[in-house]
What we know:
Number of helices: 10
Mean pLDDT: 75
Amino acid sequence: MYDFLANLDSRLEHAAVAFGAWTYWLIYAIVFAETGLIVAAFLPGDTLLFAAGTFAGAGNLNVYELAIGIHLAAICGDSANYWISRKLGHQVLVKWTKLIRPGYLRKATMFYRKHGVKAVLLSRFVPTFRTFVPFIAGLSKMNYLRFLMASVVGSALWVAVFVLGGFFFGQIPWVKEHFVTAIVLVGVATVIPSSLGILRAIYVSRKAGAALAK
Length: 214
């Protein structure tokens, strides 16, 4: 089951044959879980949307039903993650005091007051970050209306880029013939921005530390 869910993007055709109309709900459930549950961060996101868009372009799925359902599932997942963190944040702090120190939480709270909307919106396009950013937003008690606004806009853009991208570009002969390769390339392309961001943060941190040491 783990292998099937983690690789659903490349096995979507088999899922569509096996589950029929329930395939929509399987996709919605995975999008909700990947966004809303910390333990489900391993599930496919961008590549699943691209694959679903490709099948919609081939006439196997309805692109409108697909896009609207994924958009709503992503928003609900964001909100569930936010409220779980906000309501259970105290227990998290008690159990993870070594991982999430009060000082870190204060910095996170200040960051989300200033850059929260931008962080939530942009994290939608970065695997793993889109699972953890809503959690930290809830933990730092970011204003929910601001969070929801960013979630709605970010999810809409995410769906437009990947579902419609698969819908229009998935019918290119090369993509049809090398579908799994295309899925892998989409996955790599989505990881590059987060990798560059992490490397830049490490470089800036080390540079700042070296400057203070002088």
